[in-house]
Amino acid sequence: MKHILIPTDFSNNSWNALEYAACFFEKKQCIFYVLHVNNLSNSDITGNSFMTLNAQKKYSTRDKLNETIDRIGTCNPNPKHKFISLEEYGNFIDITKKTIEEKKIDLIVMGTKGISGLKASIMGSNTGNVITKIACNVLVIPDAIIAKKPSKIAFPTDFNLFYTYPILNSITEILEISNAKLEVIHMSQSRPNFSNTQVINKAYLHDYLKEICSETHSFEHILGKNTREVIVTYITENKIEMLTMVAKNLNLFQQLFFNNSLEHLSYHSTVPLLVMHE
User: Fold this and answer.
1) Any idea where the UspA domain is (predicted)?
2) CB under 8 Å, gap of 24 or more: what pairs does 210-216 form?
3) How do residues 113-142 score in pLDDT, each as one tens digit?
């Protein structure tokens, strides 16, 4: 049984994330927790007193949550899936961390607002903060994505990290669910000159993938001066339908996402991103 958290602000992109998750895990027993976090300023709690919450505001949020649960149940009827609504007040990251612990969450699925929302999302809003501050796998779904399982998944890596069991298990699960081909991508400005650590890590990953999906994975090396431009081009030309990365790989992660130049992030408007934590 998978426990999946779907934060929602009742926008189209958060609905799209919920629909994508329900489609992706259609054959898995899942409990989906649909969470809306209100600011404390939206409540009538003042000082140290515990006053009754404003009935109209509370009803409005609860009504929207109920409508979301009813809608997903109607659009995606699946006896394997159970949807539970959660309403909380407070700091979004703090509430999310608490919910992950209490509900034993395996994966967070979040929507983004496409190009216009990417800079804020990656550089400090809820999605970016969840990716960088919470040790839980996160699947980020752009608003333009059609709910379907990917057929090709790209895994950019510099082979500097040892692939621990949680990471390998996450890769295995995503491949088993999607039946997708995995393309492991290494990028450099010139022909690679791997360190001993990189050689060992690459060989370990190669042996693992050869055992679990010998016919459906490949290792690719791409030359290019700009890491983001290289990966954008590769994703477009090779019809990649999901990108997955290790959050701990901070150097590569920063090269791909932490930049003020918006056009370099444009591929994310059409490709889901799975961020894996140990």
Assistant:
1) 1-142
2) 212/172, 212/175, 213/175, 213/182, 216/175, 216/179, 216/180, 216/181, 216/182
3) 644 444 443 333 677 788 878 999 999 998
274 domain-assigned: no
Q: Are residues 88 and 42 in the same domain?
A: yes
Residues 18 and 135 placed together within one structural domain of the fold: yes
Residue with tokens 């799209």: 16
* Exposure of 6 in the CB half-sphere (CA atoms within 13 A): 29
- Show the domain range for 62: 2-142
Q: How many domains does the chain have?
A: 2
* CATH, residue 47: 3.40.50.620
d(CA 1, CA 6): 16
